[in-house]
Specification:
Butyryl-Coa Dehydrogenase, subunit A, domain 1, two-stranded antiparallel ribbon, Butyryl-CoA Dehydrogenase, subunit A, domain 3, Butyryl-CoA Dehydrogenase, subunit A, domain 2, 482 residues
Length: 482
């Protein structure tokens, strides 16, 4: 595979997949980014944290997030192209995630509004009652400038990994809706028209089993604000998605699904985003390699382009191989998700296979993105740390990818849980057996069984090295299939 494919996300997708769905739409979307979107994205990043206008000139609370007008054109371009509606029209997530890959290659942060909007539409479509669905789903599927955005708000000030302990938002019934009170500390895509929110119904048990998932509109039925934005976070990167602190004060919301299913629905939402995070991580790694390639071809040192020096040439070859393996793992998580995303509790075995692959993929691709962005800066030398050239931005954006939708620790612990309780590792080994080296597969299976047989604390303490090796082994095995 030629290094030339690194320069184009669509060319890379075609090289990895043989063919892609909706190739004309993907090509048109990529061309728009090259001609218009990239300049807007750079200006937004350099502009820094967006500004929150809390009141209008008459003192009315408005909580309006202010970006340059060009930002809204850039944002709506993806919605119009189909980052949400294509999943429902084509009854497959794959077209939406392919557009997400192209987005993340050019602006990783911008993919966040798209994936959380999809992660709002999916549970609404599956679990909302007919009246709620008829009212709120169509605006999320629009193809013009009136399209609504979604958001997924779970995390509170205590942290996101232990939802059972730190979700303090409460919900009490009020006729055909519920009233929510609480605060969400990391509210990505603040200002969204709809959000899916984790809260604990009045009288529900403690822990994660007592949580439920609610749909929260931006506006109350009387037209007033239904949630309030306390402030916008000043982040290291991903400035093209506003992240804020949100206050819920008797905020109107609608229960999704059965209350006792709440934690399962919350995890469905997170897993949609985790797969998006994996695709975004590979796309960012490709972009970092593309920038390094452009520089390495033009930078002359010791009489020739630095790309022709054996050490760097070898590094490009090795990193391209890692990129292909990482893509194979991310793509497998998407393919499996596409097979099970319509399933409801209790889930079939294939859903638990998906869960393990998603945890492995989210863990490994995010790490690869951060390391590849760092390496790209090193290839550029001093130029790599200058904001004017944009390479340092890739590292800033990449550092967020391991944290979004669950840290590496969370992926390891959840991966252990699905192996122990559902035997997902045995399903995984059966799944990759046609592509894996038989002896290496046997050795990996023995290592996993050995880890799972350890006492609890020792098992957790020793889990990371095996989890990392299992992720790489799975990725490399899947890459052989393509």
């Amino acid at each position: 595979m030629s290094l030339e494919i690194l320069q184009s996300p669509v060319d890379f997708l075609k090289a990895m997949l043989g063919e892609v769905r909706n190739p004309d739409a993907l090509a048109e979307y990529q061309t728009w980014w090259e001609n218009e979107g990239t300049a807007v994205s750079s200006a937004v990043d350099h502009g820094g944290t967006p500004w929150l206008r809390m009141f209008d000139r008459f003192g009315t609370r408005v909580d309006e997030i202010l970006f340059p007008p060009e930002y809204w054109k850039m944002l709506r371009k993806g919605y119009q192209a189909g980052v949400v509606w294509r999943a429902f029209e084509e009854k497959s997530l794959i077209p939406a995630y392919l557009l997400g890959y192209v987005t993340a290659f050019h602006d990783t942060g911008l993919y966040c509004p798209y994936i959380v909007s999809l992660s709002t539409a999916a549970p609404l479509d599956k679990y909302g009652d007919e009246a709620v669905k008829a009212r709120f789903l169509p605006p999320l599927l629009r193809r013009d400038e009136t399209v609504w955005q979604g958001a997924t708000w779970m995390t509170e000030a205590g942290g996101g990994s232990d939802l059972g302990a730190y979700v303090e938002t409460t919900a009490r019934p009020a006729g055909d809706r519920w009233l929510l009170n609480g605060e969400k500390y990391f509210a990505s895509n603040a200002g969204a028209d709809l959000a899916v929110v984790a809260a604990r119904p009045k009288g529900a048990q403690e822990g994660v089993r007592g949580l439920a998932l609610f749909l929260l509109p931006r506006r109350r039925q009387d037209g007033g604000l239904n949630y309030f934005i306390r402030r916008i976070k000043d982040k290291i990167g991903t400035r093209s998605v506003p992240t804020g602190e949100v206050e819920l004060k008797d905020s109107e919301a609608y229960l999704l699904g059965k209350p006792e299913w709440g934690i399962y629905l919350i995890l469905e939402v997170l897993n949609l985003s985790r797969v998006g995070n994996s695709m975004a991580s590979v796309a960012l790694a490709q972009r970092a390699m593309s920038e390094a390639l452009t520089f390495a071809r033009g930078r002359i040192a010791f009489g020739k382009p630095i790309l022709e020096h054996p050490l760097l040439k070898r590094q490009f070859e090795e990193r391209l191989a890692s990129l292909k393996s990482a893509f194979a793992l991310a793509w497998e998580s998407l393919t499996l998700l596409d097979q099970v995303w319509r399933e409801t509790p209790k889930y079939p075995d294939r859903y638990h296979l998906f869960r393990l692959v998603a945890h492995l993929s989210k863990y490994w691709t995010a790490e690869l993105a951060a390391q590849t962005a760092k390496w790209s800066m090193e290839v550029h030398g001093g130029m790599g740390i200058l904001a004017e050239f944009g390479v340092e931005r890739l590292l800033r954006e990449a550092m967020i990818l391991p944290i979004w939708e669950g840290t590496p620790h969370r992926q390891i612990l959840d991966g252990l849980e699905v192996m122990e309780r559902k035997g997902a590792h045995r399903m995984l080994f059966d799944h990759i057996a046609p592509f894996a080296h038989p002896q290496e597969l046997e050795e990996m299976a023995a290592r996993v069984d050995g880890l799972l047989s350890l006492p609890g604390e020792e098992k957790e303490a020793q889990a990371e090295s095996l989890f990392r090796d299992l992720a790489v082994f799975t990725a490399d095995s899947l890459a052989k299939r393509r």
